[in-house]
Design a protein that fits this description.
alpha+beta; 26 strands; seven-stranded mixed beta sheet; 31% strand; six-stranded mixed beta sheet
């Protein structure tokens, strides 16, 4: 999915942009998640996560130290953690990326270097290995001689790509795992499914059949954001799209690859703006870091295995990080709007004007001591929900009790999302919840 500024993803992927780094289908697209795109500012807008926007070389100095006394530790991770599901569609298990740039593009050397190196890094392995994707190779970059268009659409890009593959020897041959990473300068305005680059959409990925061959490609506009400049937004968006272009290479086709969250946690997909692997982590500034073996800002992505194990589901885990979080226990089946359709997901039923108390389970992957929690509306500037706690701190294995009062409902979702914020020594982690009628 496209990327958006806080680096939230959506059915467009995560990427960078003024309103296009972190996406949310709910706020940016009437609740309709469009696979392959990174949508504009999401419902989580306004959160100041960690007080910083990325981890340098995978290290955040303020993270609480990992405690290792040699004794056993049981992570009290709740059961039934969110999982990105495979729809049985194609994967690109042995990818070969090609960087494509236009003349005068100011980031050519940097993006060529990113595309050439990313597939052999530990970052790539940790992001993709569990999903059956191997190391990625790189074709020689294609440096075009034609001027980049001022305005273009995804349909026009597909027509242009088909023409170039038939006539331009600078392009690698399609098929055999080739994925084209198309970098457009800041002077090009791109539209896709009603979204506009760098405003309501960041980068995105898609595929087109050319000569009987399905050709996956990623489109990465040059968009600066409040958190990152043009270079860092571009490389982070590219990493997001490259991962999703191989784990869900045909996001508008059927069947899909790793493209959506399990039904019980569908609200994650609709609130965060997308259900592909990078989308679920793109909302969080702490997901953006510089690996030691790559030296470009990239985005961490969702790991099903890490989520189930009680580790940080956005991998790779940062050096020095001991993950802790608090998860609301949601036991009801509730309606939620997916575009013009009403579907069901897991949540808590509370009528407008009423209150209800739910459990909140705390867990940490090692002993960090007690941390504090609070509940927030999503978006944080909303006041649809009010909250009160029996206590606001605890340890791994503790259950706290949160009383939620409903003042009004979000007409877009048909319910209300909320966040549980866990904070300790400068590190802040979040978890989503959902209230339905």
């Amino acid at each position: 999915m496209p990327a958006t500024p806080g680096d939230r993803g959506a059915a467009r992927d995560a990427g960078g942009g003024t309103g296009a780094d972190a996406g949310t289908g709910a706020a940016g697209n009437g609740g309709q998640v469009v696979p392959g795109k990174n949508l504009g500012p999401g419902v989580l807008g306004g959160i100041d996560i960690d007080g910083s926007d990325e981890a340098d070389a995978g290290v955040e100095a303020s993270l609480p130290p990992r405690v290792d006394d040699g004794g056993p530790w049981t992570v009290a991770v709740p059961s039934g953690m969110p999982q990105v599901t495979n729809g049985g569609g194609p994967l690109v298990t042995s990818p070969r990326f090609q960087s494509v740039t236009f003349p005068g593009y100011d980031l050519t050397a940097d993006v060529d270097d990113l595309v050439a190196k990313i597939g052999a890094t530990s970052y790539w392995r940790q992001a993709t290995f569990e999903y059956g994707i191997g190391p990625a190779a790189a074709a020689p970059p294609a440096h075009l001689t034609e001027t980049a268009p001022t305005n273009t659409s995804d349909g026009q890009i597909q027509q242009w790509l088909a023409s170039e593959l038939g006539s331009n020897s600078a392009f690698a041959a399609p098929g055999s795992g080739t994925v084209y990473v198309l970098f457009f300068p800041s002077t090009t305005n791109i539209t896709f499914e009603g979204e506009q680059s760098c405003f309501t959409m960041g980068a995105y990925h898609n595929s087109v059949v050319i000569g009987g061959v399905s050709v996956p490609y990623a489109v990465v506009p040059e968009c600066a954001s409040d958190q990152r400049g043009g270079l860092d937004s571009t490389t982070s968006a590219a990493s997001h799209e490259m991962i999703e272009s191989v784990t869900d290479p045909s996001p508008l086709g059927t069947p899909l690859g790793y493209s959506g969250v399990d039904p019980a946690h569908l609200y994650f997909q609709l609130v965060l703006g997308g259900g592909e692997l990078a989308d679920l982590c793109a909302q969080w500034p702490s997901s953006f870091f510089t690996p030691d073996d790559l030296h470009h800002v990239v985005q961490r992505t969702w790991s099903n295995r890490a989520a189930v194990a009680g580790r940080d589901p956005c991998q790779p885990e940062l050096d020095g990080e001991t993950f802790f979080n608090a998860v609301p226990v949601l036991t009801d089946t509730v309606p939620i709007n997916q575009g013009t359709q009403s579907v069901t997901t897991q949540g808590v039923i509370i009528a407008s004007g009423a209150s209800r108390t739910i459990d909140v389970q705390l867990y940490s992957e090692a002993d960090v001591g007690p941390w504090t929690v609070q509940a927030l509306n999503a978006p944080v500037y909303a006041d649809n929900l009010s909250f009160s706690w029996d206590r606001t701190s605890g340890n791994n294995g503790d259950t706290l009790h949160l009383t939620i009062s409903v003042n009004s409902f979000d007409p877009t979702l048909g319910g209300d999302a909320f966040l549980i914020e866990s904070t300790l020594d400068g590190e802040t982690n979040y978890w989503l919840g959902y209230v339905g009628q």
